[in-house]
Amino acid sequence: MVKLIYCITRKEGMAVDAFQRYWRETHAPIAAAIPGVRRYVQCHTLPALYNGDSAPAYDGAAELWFDDLDALRAAMRSPESEAARADERNFIDHSHVVAFVTEEKPVVGS
Hints:
Elements: E1 2-8, H1 16-32, E2 39-44, E3 60-66, H2 69-76, H3 79-88, E4 98-102
Antiparallel strand pairs: 1-3, 1-4, 2-3
């Protein structure tokens, strides 16, 4: 298995609660429809970590698991993936994202 980790930041002016709700309720079903996705997890930054002096570096991270790199590449070429990328424009600031592909190496637990 390989995992795509996608660290994201909300669009300027979008409230944290609105961002998290949109991501969870509107975007999640779109992203979950991408072919070949074996698991999809959203990691939302805790609202308590936002304060007047500093903001978290990212508002969250999406984790998408695929059988292998070929499955990931095929998924990224799909119309469903294009639909997910198009929807991202509604809530993500693409000037501040990071994405990388990993293979897990468990250290504690399974």
